[in-house]
Amino acid sequence: QIRHSGSGLSRAARDVRLGVVAALGDGGRGREEVSTAVFRPKCTISRTGPSGTARGFEQGFRCDSAPYLGKAGGLHLRSRPWTFQLKRSNAAVSQAAAHILAAQKGASNLYPASGRKLPKVLSRMTSKKGIDANRAKAKAACKRKWKTKPKGKDCDEYPFASTNQGAAKVYNKFSVRYIDNKQNRKAGSRLGAWYKSDRILNGDAFEVRVK
């Protein structure tokens, strides 16, 4: 609890007390050392005349120290949904964004999931073995479809290799396409950076959105 005081403050300011309550929930579980809590701001005004207490909205948050998200721990506000977004208007990732959108809409030119709408909601997977299996399955599909790799292209896949919905998880429920290799790597690096910035843990579900 914090109480303002000092001659440099107005009398009204000196009579304002700000309180913050963090109600701890489950804590420190798993290798990510996950704990949850609730933040409850409280403001109390006491002076000559009317006085009262105002309580702010409750805000839940989650803290973790997942080793695959860097050395420092962090927190996520639980009221905010997780959304990863790419824009077709962004020249750096336009081809990757277009592939994702086509896959989500079930375009007829998808391979091998032609005409099948692929999920917008995915869940992260951190297993290296699982990620490698997804990538291997996707690359094999590209080779099977196009035989040779075009110069300056990479085999792009959706759902992402780093998710539980990747190519090796469900029979032929994925899409591959050759796109510009710089765009493919840029989209991948943005996904990896977003995983870290938004503290996406193993198993966390998130939406993939294309504008």
Task: Compute the average pLDDT.
Answer: 84
SSE order: EHEEEEEEHEHEEHE
Summed up, the helix count is: 4
Strand portion:
25-35%
- What's the helical proportion of residues? 10-25%
- Derived from helix and strand composition plus strand pairing, the structural class reads alpha+beta
**Cα distance, first to last residue?**
44 Å
Report the major sheet: 6 strands, antiparallel
Radius of gyration using CA atoms only: 24 Å
* Poorly predicted parts: 1-25
Structural shape: elongated
Total strands: 11
Structure overview:
The protein is of the alpha+beta class and 211 residues long. Helix content is 25%, strand content 29%. The protein contains 4 helices and 11 strands, in the order βαββββββαβαββαβ. It has helices spanning 11-14, 94-105, 128-146, 181-197; strands at residues 2-3, 16-24, 35-45, 52-55, 59-64, 74-77, 83-86, 121-123, 153-158, 175-180, 205-210. Strands 1, 2, 3, 4, 5 and 6 form a 6-stranded antiparallel sheet that branches. Strand 3 and strand 4 (52-55) form a beta hairpin. The radius of gyration is 24 Å and the shape is elongated. The two termini are 44 Å apart. The model is unreliable at 1-25 (pLDDT under 50).
Structure characteristics:
3-stranded mixed β-sheet; about 210 residues; disordered N terminus; alpha+beta; 6-stranded antiparallel β-sheet; 11 strands; elongated
Layout of strands and helices, then pairs:
Elements: E1 2-3, H1 11-14, E2 16-24, E3 35-45, E4 52-55, E5 59-64, E6 74-77, E7 83-86, H2 94-105, E8 121-123, H3 128-146, E9 153-158, E10 175-180, H4 181-197, E11 205-210
Parallel strand pairs: 7-11
Antiparallel strand pairs: 1-2, 2-3, 3-4, 3-5, 5-6, 8-11, 9-10
